[in-house]
Specification:
The termini are far apart. The chain is mainly β. A three-stranded antiparallel beta sheet has the order 1-2-3, with no helix packed on it. It has a three-stranded antiparallel beta sheet with strand order 4-5-6, with no helix packed on it. Strand 2 and strand 3 form a beta hairpin. The protein has one helix and 16 strands. The longest helix is centred in the N-terminal third of the chain and has 30 residues.
């Protein structure tokens, strides 16, 4: 038991001695002494590492702007703000950076055409053709409408002119071929008086008699563009050879003041002259002499029919007059 204990203590001391020997050797190497020799060391024998500039990981381009705020930390010419071109399916756009944060590309996302699409031609106003190109995802006019007509289909045009004391209008319309059609007729004159032109005449007719005839009357427009009064109805004519309407009257030819003729049932003027209502006599004699009609008013006396269609109030003596 005692040996065993000694043996264990001896081994422990041997290990400790070996550790001290190794520690001494390491100290000698560090001080430049080999094999117990010691002496001064020269500077040339000291190996020093060269100086190396290690970049700041928070500012690689050394522009003074931190990485988190720099739009491109590898390019010292780009700082807190920048722009760059970008493109999308519908066209080109721009990306903008502010304080190191890049916004999405501004290229349109909704488009009705693709930049690679060839130009197209579409119809434009007045039957023309418009060339279009795709820009930014949208069809855009390239130039102006070509080959256009003079009007748009269905369009109306108006024209006016003076008439009498007012004006009148006429219109025309545009055809499906984008050209103007013919002018329509002039409308009625309006804007002054009754809508007529000075000197203009108007007439109307009506049936007359039992012989199928007709008669006319007329009126004339005055200088103030108003219609004048209608004239008296004219003679009945036409029909089955009739000259008048049964019952119509007219002054006896040559005896216009005191007597008249009446149209017969056969639409012809009667031959007899009848005194007008209120007339006592006919101023014109049967032989056509005005003032030549007389009557006896006692022996050797007569009285004449005056132009008033009345007998003279006094009787005059006459000789050879048959009274």
């Amino acid at each position: 038991m005692t040996y065993s204990s000694f043996s264990r203590e001896g081994r422990s001391l041997s290990s400790f001695a070996l550790f001290l020997t190794l520690l001494a050797g390491l100290s000698a190497c560090a001080s430049g002494t080999v094999g117990g020799d010691s002496g001064p060391t020269s500077d040339a024998s000291i190996d020093t590492a060269p100086d190396v500039d290690v970049p700041d990981p928070n500012d690689r381009d050394e522009d003074g702007i931190p990485l988190a705020m720099d739009c491109d930390d590898n390019n010292p010419s780009i700082g807190r703000s920048a722009q760059r071109l970008c493109s999308g399916a519908c066209g080109d756009g721009v990306e903008e950076c502010m304080n190191g944060v890049w916004a999405p590309c501004s290229a349109p996302t909704d488009c009705d055409c693709n930049p690679a699409d060839p130009p197209r031609e579409v119809e434009c106003g007045m039957c023309g053709t418009q060339r279009q190109i795709c820009q930014g995802g949208t069809w855009t006019n390239d130039g102006s409408c070509s080959g256009a007509g003079e009007c748009s289909p269905g369009e109306f045009d108006e024209q006016s002119e003076a008439c009498g004391c007012g004006s009148r209008m006429r219109t025309r319309s545009c055809s499906a071929r984008c050209s103007w059609g013919a002018w329509g007729a002039w409308g009625e004159c309006s804007g002054g008086g009754s809508g007529c032109s000075p000197g203009e005449t108007d007439s109307e007719s009506r049936g007359c008699g039992s012989c199928g005839g007709s008669q006319m009357r007329s009126r004339t427009c005055s200088d103030t563009c108003d219609w004048g009064a209608w004239s008296e109805w004219g003679e009945c004519g036409g029909g089955a050879g009739g000259a008048c309407a049964p019952g119509d009257t007219r002054p006896c030819p040559g005896r216009e003041s005191c007597s008249h003729q009446t149209c017969t049932s056969s639409c012809e003027w009667g031959t007899a002259c009848e005194l007008n209502a209120g007339a006592a006599c006919d101023h014109v004699s049967d032989s056509g002499v005005a003032g030549g009609r007389f009557q006896c008013c006692g022996g050797g006396q007569w009285q004449f029919c005056l132009s008033s269609c009345q007998w003279s109030p006094a009787c005059e003596a006459c000789s050879g007059c048959g009274c």
